[in-house]
Amino acid sequence: MIAMFFWSFVIGGIICVIGQLMFDVAKLTPAHTLSLMVVAGAILSGFGLYEPLIDFAGAGATIPITSFGNALVNGAMQESQEHGLVGVLTGMFEVTSSGISAAIVFGFIGALLFNPKG
Question: Is the four-CA dihedral 37, 42, 46, 51 of positive or negative sign?
């Protein structure tokens, strides 16, 4: 169990270090970094490499933003088997809709409760 926590921390940390290097070294904006990380997760998932990473690292691979790209591809692939091309479009939203909805609702609540600085 300790090994699982260790590898989860290491893999999650590596993903975060890659994102930080994109900010600091490549001088990318947060939007560019976010987009590239989601696309990287989608590409890894498309080649079948992200699921083994999740099995190995657990939350270290499911918490970072790269897992959102993985979820998009998984949803699209699952629904495409049942509904064809229409399933590709609807599957992405079906699988990720709860996470997107939660982000919108909690972001709105946070904006109501706290005053921005600046």
Answer: positive
Q: What is the pLDDT of residues 47-101, one digit of tens each?
A: 999 999 999 998 888 888 888 888 888 888 888 888 877 777 777 777 777 777 8
Copy the structure tokens of residue 49.
């490499």
Going from the C-alpha of 19 to that of each of 6, 26, 51, the distances in angstroms are 20, 10, 20
At position 102, the amino acid (one-letter code) is A
State the DSSP string of 71-111: HHHHHHHHHHHHHTHHHHHHHHHHHHHHHHHHHHHHHHHHH
Tokens for 29, please give them.
């904006």
CA distance 42 to 96: 13
Q: Which residue matches tokens 């629904």?
A: 79
* Neighbouring C-beta atoms of residue 50, cutoff 10 Å: 24
Q: What is d(CA 107, CA 55) in angstroms, rounded to the nearest whole number?
A: 30
Please indicate whether residue 9 or residue 101 has the higher confidence score (pLDDT).
9
The half-sphere exposure of 33 on its side-chain side, counting CA atoms within 13 A, is: 17
